[in-house]
Amino acid sequence: MGIGLTQILFVSTALFFIGVYGFLTRRNMITMLMAIELILNSININFIAFNKYLYADKLDGLFFTVFIITIAAAEAAVAIAIIINLYRSYKSIDIEDADTMKY
Length: 103
Known about the structure:
Number of strands: 0
Number of helices: 3
Oligomer: single chain
Largest sheet: none
Structural class: mainly alpha
Helix content: over 70%
Radius of gyration: 17 Å
Order of helices and strands: HHH
Shape: elongated
Strand content: under 5%
């Protein structure tokens, strides 16, 4: 008796909604970025699970997962650079302070 598709999809769904909750409720840009990474990781789990259980002879899910990991790494690097630049300019990375920032 092993782990089935239902259990994997349950974990993936939980990760997705934790990420959505974290993105919508947090005010810090770093925690919002981490929430987006959780969402992308839950999508990766779905691709791997469906690839393993439905299309075991194909590698499409694995290729999509590698592509998403690559995009997530580039997105994180660009987002961290933008966050650092905003912090240097405005001394805050809080979303609530965005309306008081002078452009």
